[in-house]
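// run 5 | inverse folding | seed 20
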């Protein structure tokens, strides 16, 4: 069964340099979430918990999920404190309990939290689909945001893993695209 992971789409991401196509990414996440909910599939928001004094510390203004995310009472929220949403969290057990075996991954930041979570999910045996237009990052000193995203799409498609990582646009997922790992 499919499940949607939304990584770190929190108010604190508005700080610093602009995030690539943020408005479009939020719309993509909202569309995917609505589709999965309609099909009775789980939507999980992963929320970074920074240390006291950090902009992502629980309760701080930057800690809150983005206001423009469409959320439902059935959605789950999983706290994390490192890049990898699986490390030291109940995420794996939660997904297993829900019967999720294919994760559609979205969120911020492509090169850090999204990447770390995708790599862990693959190592844990999940089929993974990175929503190609469902994650964002800002320009980095060595590469612009579009280049960071393109690089990670290539890396994810080429990971050596028990189940290949698919990188698909949301439109393909909404149209019912299957991957070699199921759907």
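// decoded
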């Amino acid at each position: 069964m499919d499940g949607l992971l939304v990584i770190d789409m929190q108010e604190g991401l508005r700080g610093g340099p602009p995030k690539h196509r943020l408005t479009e990414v939020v719309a993509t996440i909202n569309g995917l979430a609505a589709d999965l909910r309609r099909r009775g599939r789980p939507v999980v928001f992963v929320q970074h918990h920074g240390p006291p004094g950090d902009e992502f510390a629980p309760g701080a203004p930057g800690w809150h999920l983005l206001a423009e995310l469409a959320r439902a009472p059935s959605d789950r929220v999983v706290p994390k404190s490192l890049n990898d949403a699986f490390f030291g969290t109940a995420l794996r057990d939660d997904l297993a309990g829900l019967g999720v075996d294919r994760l559609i991954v979205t969120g911020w930041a492509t090169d850090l939290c999204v990447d770390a979570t995708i790599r862990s999910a693959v190592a844990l045996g999940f089929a993974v689909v990175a929503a190609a237009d469902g994650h964002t990052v800002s320009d980095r000193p060595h590469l612009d945001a579009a280049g960071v995203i393109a690089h990670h799409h290539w890396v994810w498609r080429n990971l050596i893993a028990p189940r290949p990582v698919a990188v698909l646009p949301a439109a393909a997922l909404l149209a019912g695209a299957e991957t070699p790992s199921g759907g």
